[in-house]
Every structure is written in structure tokens, then in C-alpha cells.
Amino acid sequence: MSNQIQKHRKKLSIGSIVVYSFLCIASILSLFPFYWMFVMATRPSAAYNTIPPTLTPGNMLVENFNKVLNQIDFFGGMWNSFVLCVVVTIVVLFISSLAGFAFAKFKFPGKNILFVAILVTMIIPPQLGLIPQYFLISKAGLLDTLAGVMILSFLNPLGIFLMRQYISGAVPDELIEAAKLDGCSNFRIYWRIVLPIILPAFATLGIIVFTAVWGEFLWQFTVLRDPDSYTIQVALAQLSNTNNIDFGMILSGVFWATVPLLIIFLLFNRLFISSITEGSVKS
């Protein structure tokens, strides 16, 4: 019996070593582009094309960032992106959770067809809708405004799907029925009962939406033409509109534009991990 236990422990230890080794390698490969971006942000532009590549940080981070500030309104772009991302994230969380609650706990005609139609929109490339969306925003008089950028992002099919799946497993039907017997309206059930339960899913979806909107470029570049309304992505694109491209300057701007995403993740990572682990336990 003891021999079998020892063999099992030996297999378990070998398996754990393999798994952790793979995770360490995958983590290093995932983090290396960010590290290299930081290294290039601290180096002159010539270091970008050196062979072998430079892997140690330099001393030009502040100098390169000062060049960025001289070329574009960096902090204005950061503020516009922050406002855009916060508004879109809040509205998407509200709409997606309400829709997910309806699809998960209510029965109504055409429910399955409507849900499938929403899922189908996820496979349509966003570039296909660029021209008609631009036409609609132009007719509405929302060009060169953050409202024109954000209004088409409020309905998020992925958010509706994630919320529907999470609410289906996390919110018991008995709890909703009991609330209805006490005379609660559907919205009060959502606000008082469902919302506190789905906070981990809120954190997960919020991080996904915030990072997606922050990193989106094509639609923002299409709608925004006034420099005062530029988001940080559109503003950074102006750095490459010169004949002599300074890669150190560009990557310095990109590095500092990435910092807010790291802050958002660190603030909500506990709820994010909680949502993932809850899903794995339930499955």
C-alpha cells in the first residue's frame, strides 16, 4: 500500500513540475512583448533595429516621453479614452446584465431565436459594418464626438452571453420565485437580488470591455477628426505621420498608455479570479 502511495506521489510531483514549467514558459512568452516595449521606450530609435536585439533598459524613458508630449496632447487623449471606456463599460454592464437576466430566468415568445440572433452577430467582422455605421453617425450629427464613438458599443453580444450563462448557474430560481411572492417587481429583483450575486461576473466583463474599448482603433480613427476629441490610440497614431519615425518616442507613448490597463486589472483582479474559479467549480 505504501509503495502505491509513493508511486502516486512521484507521478503527481512529476506532473506538477511539468505543468508549472509549462505555465512559467507561457507566462514569460506572454510578458516578453511588454518587457521589450519598455526596453525600447528607454532607448534611442536606433536600438529598434539592432541585431542581436537590445534586452536591457536604457536611460531615455523620460526624454522619449517628453518628445511624445511635444508632439501630441497625450494627457488629453488619455482623458478622452478614460471617459469613453468608463461610460461604455458602465452602460454595457447594465444592459448586458439586464438582458442576461431576462434570457436566463424569463420565458417569452421568440426567446431562443432572439438569443441565437444576438450570438450570430458575434461572428460578423466589425469592418463589414464600418460604412453603414459611419453613415448613421454622420446623419445623427455625432462625428468628431465621443458620443459618436461610444453609442454603437453599448450593445455587447459577448456581454449578454456571459451574463446569461453566469446568471443561469449563480442565481437560484427558488430565490426569484420567493421574491415574486413577496411582491417584488422584476427590476427590484434584479437590483436587490441578482446584482449582488453577479459582482464577480461584473468584474470579468468590465475588464474585458474596458480593455477592448481602450485598445480599439479603427472605429475611433474613422469617427474622430478633431484633435481635441482624439482618444489616446488616435493620438498615438499621429506620431508615425512623419518621415523620420522615432520608435523610442512611439513605444514610450504606447508604454505609458498601457499603464491604466494594468491599474484597472490590479484593482479588480480578485473579483476577476473569483468569477473564473466559481465557473470552474460549478462546471
From TrEMBL:
Recorded source organism is Oceanobacillus profundus
* BP GO annotations: transmembrane transport
The source's domain of life comes to Bacteria
Membrane disposition: Multi-pass membrane protein
Question: What residue stretches are annotated with the ABC transmembrane type-1 domain?
Answer: 78-268
Which key words are in the record? Cell membrane, Membrane, Transmembrane, Transmembrane helix, Transport
Concerning InterPro entries, the annotation shows: MetI-like (IPR000515), MetI-like_sf (IPR035906)
Q: Where are the transmembrane segments?
A: 12-36, 78-101, 113-135, 141-162, 189-214, 247-268
Q: PROSITE patterns of this UniProt entry?
A: ABC_TM1
The cellular location(s) given in this protein's UniProt record come to: Cell membrane
One of this protein's Pfam families, by short name?
BPD_transp_1
Query: What is one term from the GO cellular component aspect held by the record?
Result: plasma membrane
In the record, the note on similarity to other proteins reads: Belongs to the binding-protein-dependent transport system permease family.
Q: What name does this protein carry?
A: Carbohydrate ABC transporter permease
Q: Does the keyword Disulfide bond apply?
A: no
